[in-house]
Amino acid sequence: MKNHTKVYFDYFGFTPGDYVPCEISGTPCVDVSHNDPRGMGGRPKNSGDTPENLMGLSRVWHDFLEANPSYYWWFQLVHFQYMVTRKPYHETECSINDPIFEEIVAKLKWK
């Protein structure tokens, strides 16, 4: 298991084999993503491996994040909410009438 995945699992209490939800959609998480990506800032290896910088995402949402870096700030806000509520974003009241969420969902043709 990669170091950043272990940090994420330890923080949220997951163990290998557990169902780990995407923090946005609730579908299976396939990637633990760095919200402040290592490749964009030249960070030393593992320096961004903190729970605040790691987000569990499905392939669709991870691909969108990597292709659309202007949304990193929104993903970070969603992640902070997940850290408190432990609920996928689409299940929270905050997602209702969220224009950014609606914009991304429309671009993805998700739901």
What this model shows, in words?
- The protein has 111 residues and is mainly α.
- Helix content is 42%, strand content 7%.
- The protein has five helices and two strands, in the order αβαβααα.
- It is globular, with a radius of gyration of 13 Å.
Based on the model shown, name its key terms.
111 residues, mainly alpha, 5 helices, 2 strands, globular
For the largest beta-sheet, the strand count, sense and barrel status come to: 2 strands, antiparallel
Count of helices? 5
Strand content bin: 5-15%
Distance between the termini: 31 Å
- Secondary-structure-based class equals mainly alpha
Given the C-alpha coordinates, what overall shape results? Answer: globular
- Portion in helices: 40-55%
Give the SSE string: HEHEHHH
Radius of gyration: 13 Å
Uncertain segments are: none
Biggest β-sheet: strands ordered side by side in the sheet: 1-2
Mean pLDDT: 89
Question: What can be said about this structure in brief?
Answer:
It contains five helices and two strands, in the order αβαβααα. It has 111 residues and is mainly alpha-helical.
Chain-wise SSE layout:
Elements: H1 3-12, E1 31-34, H2 38-41, E2 54-57, H3 59-67, H4 72-85, H5 99-108
